[in-house]
Amino acid sequence: MASTSMPSDLYTEVVQVFRGGEPDDDGFSLAGRISPLTRSFNSHTCACACVPFPHSLWEFLDRLNPYALDSDIWLRVIGEDCDLPLPEGATLIATRRVSLCVE
């Protein structure tokens, strides 16, 4: 009989995807990085080194192309109960909940 154990250090964060404006203290841009879904032999850093997102979120982000050097797409990762105001000049494109496990 197979058993499933749930890790005790499972937590959820909210990932907000913005267009325009400037990243705030909790925000960051992926401009100039390489998509983790793209094979590459160049020296650019993979975007997956910034944050541990699930595959489905990387697929969503790839459609927006936040990796271009002139991209105005940026992300903000906040706690589930955090309610920060919309940054000036930014438009909220999407909000995703991401569950992470720390071992």
Strand order of the largest sheet: 2-3-1-4
Return Rg in Å. Answer: 15 Å
What level of helicity do the residues show?
Answer: under 10%
* Strand residue content: 25-35%
Concise description?
The chain has one helix spanning 55-64; strands at 10-19, 27-29, 73-79, 91-101. With 103 residues, the chain is mainly beta.
What does this protein look like?
The chain is mainly β. The protein has one helix spanning 55-64; strands at 10-19, 27-29, 73-79, 91-101. It has a four-stranded antiparallel beta sheet, with no helix packed on it. The radius of gyration is 15 Å and the shape is globular. The model has no long low-confidence stretch (mean pLDDT 84).
Provide keyphrases for this structure.
103 residues; mainly beta; 4-stranded antiparallel β-sheet; 4 strands; globular
Write the layout of secondary structure elements.
Elements: E1 10-19, E2 27-29, H1 55-64, E3 73-79, E4 91-101
Antiparallel strand pairs: 1-3, 1-4, 2-3
